Amino acid sequence: MQGRQRGFVQITGPNGVEEHETFTCGHCNNVVRVPHKAKPDDLGGMCRVCMSMVCGRCCATGRCDPFDKKLKRMEDRGRFFREVGI
């Protein structure tokens, strides 16, 4: 597993304090709140290619596109445009 993907959130509002576990999607970097006694299939799943937890939206695509690879592509694209003067 790459980095720390699990977390904890405490939400304070007019109805009191809510506490939930969270995880960060390895494909879109979205933080997903894990409701108490939630079914794992309802939250997304585990990508068997990059071995990271993924949200439901990324799980539905059926392909592995890790967030760190997306960042590298963006940086490479920006570097290319700077080199050619665009």
Sheet of most strands: 3 strands, antiparallel
- What is the total tally of β strands? 5
Oligomer: single chain
Low-pLDDT runs of 5+ residues are none
The overall average pLDDT, rounded, is 86
Give the % helix: 25-40%
β-strand percent reads 25-35%
What does the radius of gyration come to? 17 Å
* Order of adjacent strands in the largest pleated sheet: 1-2-3
Structural class: alpha+beta
Q: Termini separation (Å)?
A: 38 Å
> Treating each run of at least 4 consecutive H or I residues as one helix, how many helices?
3
Overview of the molecule:
There is one protein chain. The chain is α+β, with helices and mostly antiparallel strands and 86 residues long. The protein has one domain. Helices cover 33% and strands 34% of the residues. The protein contains 3 helices and 5 strands. The protein has a 3-stranded antiparallel β-sheet, with no helix packed on it. Strands 4-5 form a two-stranded antiparallel ribbon. A hairpin with a 6-residue loop joins strand 2 (16-24) and strand 3. The radius of gyration is 17 Å and the shape is elongated. The termini are far apart.
Strand-helix topology:
Blueprint: E1 6-13, E2 16-24, E3 31-34, H1 40-43, E4 44-47, E5 52-55, H2 56-61, H3 67-84
Antiparallel strand pairs: 1-2, 2-3, 4-5
Supply the key terms.
86 residues, alpha+beta, three-stranded antiparallel beta sheet, 34% strand
